[in-house]
Amino acid sequence: MRLELGKIKISDLAFGPQTKVEAGTLYVNQAELEALILEDPALKSCTVHLAKPGEKTRIVPVKDVVEPRCKVSGPGGPFPGFISKVNPVGSGRTHVLSGAAVVTTGKIVGFQEGIIDMSGPGADYTPFSKTYNVVLDIEPVEGIEQYAHERAVRLAGLKTAVYLGEAGKDIKPDEIEVYELDPFTEAAAKHPNLPKVAYLMMLLSQGLLHDTFVYGVDTKKLLPTIIHPNELFDGAIVSGNCVSACDKNTTYHHLNNPVVKELYRRHGQDICFLGVVISNENVTLEDKERSSGYATKLIQMLGADAAVISEEGFGNPDADLIMNCERLEASGIKTVLLTDEYAGRDGASQSLADISPQADAVVSAGNANELIQLPPMETVIGNLAVTDVIAGGFEGSKAADGSLTVELQAIMGATNELGFGYVRGINY
Amino acid sequence: MRAKIGFVVLTNNPLVLRQYDELKLVPVDGDAEEVYIKARNLVHKGHRLLSHPLSGNIKPGLAPYRTIVLTEEADRTVDLDSLNYMSAALEAVQRTGRRAAETIPAAILNDYAAVDLSIFESALLSLQA
Q1: CB-hemisphere CA count at 13 Å for A355?
Q2: Is residue B1 part of a domain?
Q3: Domain range holding A261?
Q4: Which end of chain A has fewer beta carbons closer than 10 Å to its terminal beta carbon, N or C?
Q5: Spatial CA neighbour of A37 closest among A100, A131, A106, A94
Q6: How far apart are CA B35 and CA B13, in angstroms?
């Protein structure tokens, strides 16, 4: 399967009479976009804001971040199962408005979270302070249930990403990245002397605000399955996850999975990349055992010598992570784990809720409990009141001047467990 | 054939108590830590955990409601996996600092209850499959 990702670099953002890309600037027709979003009868109001790197702007509470993309050639379309039909994606050509992002905000539950500061110390912790953000501040109709509300905001984000992405359809990309991976039997035959590596990607799947979707399917109903890495680049995996801002994978993360990119980069050099297995993180222990057993079996069937495992979230997913690690190691498959830590504010406590001697190669994306002070911002998009109750905030975390003391946990993508961030934990 | 496992539902969540009174509920009058302590005591008596005690991605000390599913029948021996999961969960609750439910506005309490209910229902779907 071969996919060309045509990257159109976005270096400025403005409202304009027509949504278009011109000389690196993304122009957005505000009224047209707001009307498109309000076609959904579940939504009462939507205000589109623009937020650029360096501005004194805070966006909170952020639900999801999505990158604008459009399909130029090849089967299927972006976000299959939601925006496009469910045809397999991942081949042909896709254009990306690289450097732009759609950010959805709006209070779904009262303890929601997710801060993006476009400047100041908080900006150093989130990749979304460097993107040109089209922010959707969305209010639902009265009396809507949380599930329907989450879904409506999720769809608004995807719709907007496709609407903006279409503006790049006929633009000549600044750069074209090519991703091509042979069927795993052929890949293994081509590189007989290289270690064969699979990627086991764990997805949060537990209920309201804790869900992930693959081709529109709720992943808690999924047996682990094989997915071609290119499918991720076309939006086959969509986030419905709104808790734990620091280590949830937004849809943007899925579209830009750095583990996949690094495995591709090293394919044929020092490793042979076989493919991706996705697994879930369910609530019952039997589901966890079933999924880890099944994922291990699939990775064995691929013929892997080693596997990279990335976790999503914290707490009970630590049990899935360790089960996956132990089962793979017991089958003779070496593992490297990607996670983050909840090691207390001083970093002295045990980092994970589950451990194992087999987990002897672990990459840490940082300590989510670390405290950070965020100065007040001139503009707040969304609702600052929620920072009192967000996961990383605590009572009294908001000072009278609007400054915040929060744990890194409150910042979007701060300790992302795909390594898409700026923080890491090291032993010394 | 694999027999269906009988289960009990330990909870302090008013929504679970109200909506699932046909199940074998063990109501807990207290905070989330109280639910963890009661669950650990049942594990000591030989019940096995069916749901992971740290369900959800909300910091355990901050979530006022918790629902944990255990086997209805006690085994003659203590299940060590269950015991380890309970110890780690209790440690996590005590470490993350607690927030008394009475300091949380009613609308937000209801949101917490709705999320815990949803996570419990996803366990229930699996247990009743």
Answers
A1: 9
A2: no
A3: 2-410
A4: C
A5: A106
A6: 10
The answer to whether A202 contacts chain B (CB < 8 Å) is: no
Q: Would you say residue A422 lies in a domain? A: no
Contacts of B64 in chain A (CB under 8 A): none
Distances A368 to A331, A391, A426 between C-alpha atoms, Å: 32, 10, 14
Alpha carbon distance A83, B109 (integer Å): 34
pLDDT of B59 > 80? The answer is no
Angstroms from B92 CA to nearest CA on chain A: 7
The answer to whether residue B2 sits within a structural domain is: no
B107, B108, B115: residue with CB nearest A209: B115
In this prediction, the answer to ipTM > 0.85 reads yes
Q: Which pLDDT does position B12 carry in this prediction?
A: 96
Look at residue A415 and tell me if it is in a domain. Answer: no
Q: b or e along A8-39 (b: 16 or more beta carbons within 10 Å of the residue's beta carbon)?
A: bebeebeeeeebbbeeeebbbbbeebeebbee
Closest CA relative to residue A264, chosen from A256, A255, A254, A272: A272
In the predicted model, what is the mean pLDDT of residues A227-243? 95
What domain range includes position B38?
7-127
* Residue A115 clears pLDDT 70, i.e. is over it: yes
- Characterize the bridge pairing of strands A379-382 and A371-374: unpaired
Q: Is residue B11 part of a domain?
A: yes
Of B60, B69, B103, the CB nearest to A315: B60
pLDDT tens digits, A129-160: 999 999 999 999 999 998 999 999 999 999 99
pLDDT in tens, A266-313: 999 999 999 999 999 999 999 999 999 999 999 999 999 999 999 999
Task: Convert the pLDDT of each residue in A320-364 to its tens digit.
Answer: 999 999 999 999 999 999 999 999 888 888 889 888 999 999 999
- Asked whether residue B109 is assigned to any structural domain, the reply reads yes
3-state secondary structure at position A238: strand
Domains held by chain B: number: 1
pLDDT tier, B128 (very low <50, low <70, confident <90, very high otherwise): confident
Q: How many domains does chain A have?
A: 1
What does DSSP say about strands A2-9 and A175-180: parallel, antiparallel, or unpaired?
antiparallel
DSSP code of A222? P
Say how far apart CA A275 and CA A198 lie, in whole Å: 5
Active site amino acids of A: 242
SS3 A282: coil
Per-residue confidence (pLDDT) for residue A338, from 0 to 100? 97
Asked if residues A102 and A192 have their Cβ atoms less than 8 Å apart, the reply is no
Model confidence at A389, pLDDT cuts 50, 70, 90, reads low
Q: Are B17 and B11 in contact (CB under 8 A)?
A: yes
User: Smallest Cα–Cα separation from A240: which of A230, A225, A231, A251?
Assistant: A251
In chain B, which residues have their Cβ closer than 8 Å to the Cβ of A287?
A: 126
Residue A46 forms part of a structural domain: yes
Q: Using CA atoms, how far apart are residues B129 and B4, in angstroms rounded to an integer?
A: 9
Structure-token pair, residue B25: 């509920």
- Under 8 Å between Cβ of A391 and A406: no
What pLDDT is stored for residue A390 in this prediction? Answer: 54
Task: Quickly state the pLDDT bin for B8 (edges 50, 70, 90).
Answer: very high
Flag whether A327 is in a domain.
yes
